[in-house]
Design brief:
Elements lengths: L1 E8 L3 H11 L5 E6 L1 E3 L3 E3 L9 E8 L1 H17 L5 E7 L5
Antiparallel strand pairs: 1-5, 1-6, 2-5, 3-4
Helix pairs in contact: 1-2
């Protein structure tokens, strides 16, 4: 199994949820209005100077679903310009 962490600009909510739906990933944990700074997306701090915010998702899935999610994120990144989305894939050793 894999744990997929996705950080994305809040403006991309619909597209990111579409990636999960297309991959068949029905279960996830989402954090809204998280702050961060990425190399390609710049600061998302929810302040007057840097008003954008990120959301984040954590998804525990089988390896094949993780591959579908990361491929969907790659396609999404290709279509976005100044709005960020990034996926990180980690091994998941145990679910209890």
């Amino acid at each position: 199994m894999k744990m997929v962490f996705i950080a994305y600009d809040e403006a991309n909510e619909g597209q990111v949820m579409g990636v999960l739906r297309d991959a068949g990933a029905a279960n996830y944990t989402r954090w809204t209005e998280v702050q961060g700074k990425g190399t390609s997306s710049g600061p998302h701090l929810g302040t007057a100077v840097w008003p954008k915010r990120n959301h984040a998702l954590l998804v525990a899935v089988e390896d094949a679903q993780a591959a579908r999610i990361t491929e969907g994120v790659r396609r999404l990144r290709d279509t976005l310009t100044l709005k960020g989305v990034k996926a990180f894939v980690l091994p998941l050793e145990e679910v209890t």
